[in-house]
Amino acid sequence: MRSDPADAPSRSPRVPSRDHPTGTERAIELRIDATRYLSEPKPTRIRRELTIHVSEHCFLPRDEDLASDWVAHVAVPAFRLLRRERGGGRVESFCSIGTGAGLDVLSAIEVFDATRVGLTDVHEDVVAAAVGNVRRNLAGGQPVAIEAGHGDLLEPLRPLRPRYDVVYENLPNVPAESAAAVAVERTSSTHVPPRAEAIPPEVKRQMLDLHYVALRSARDFLAPGGAVLSMLGARVPLEVFLRMGEAAGVGSSFLAYTWKVQAEGESVIRDHAERQRRGFGPFHFYRADALRRRFASVDFATSGAQALEIERSLAPERLDAVRAWEAFQAGERIGHTAVVLKSVAR
Question: How many other CB atoms are there within 10 angstroms of residue 238's CB atom?
């Protein structure tokens, strides 16, 4: 299990960027220490200090609190684990659905040694910034082909008919109140409703719509032997994810099971509590200290096989979303478990 970097000091000043493609004061430039972000002493394929432009529609990476950052705390260890599972060889092609700032793609280039990457996001300015971030932060002499487009999930890439060894998704769960809200806000936990596709009732009740649709569409983009990695906040029972994969027509298993501090707690926990009051869920949160203690002895490499057992052992510590919101408002640090779901074509 990677060490918890929650108390690590900030190394990433945030400054307005007038040169960013959005051309707005809301654009932000970050300086991120790649050795700290990746827990990698000597990155070779990306620069050691990353210059990351974050557009006005993109959620902010949690570089000041890596225990709440999905890429640094969950995805990077999962990438390393998957590469070991595949015999340690290069994972040549990688695609991120909903890339945000592109740190997931840069991490995949470093960890997988990928030479062809795809990336999508809903907003054109987010994709433009992410492509710039990838190109700007490659180490000298590292050739990487980039396939990118903005729009719904993988659809922007469909005209290219690409196939990828790994398709990665870390998508929002909570439906926004309107498309207009997503158009004007930095969004990390909301998406545009509703989906036109038929969604299984259990999937819809647990607000996993986008993950389900992504699994279905990713089947058309996987290379032989390829896998989808879904980063899932395990705020619902783990068995729901396995049933979701079955309904989507893929074979799913738990690659890894871990925990993280709830990022953007003010909005995410509140939104889950509100949805739970409307009949969704129920959703599971925990006090961060309880999760830290439980996972202290868990080896990340074998955590997937232990996931159901660990989940059962945490039952006495569980808070539903309403209680978690009350605890958060009282000043407690709240977290949730997280699972890396590995899905393959059937």
Answer: 18
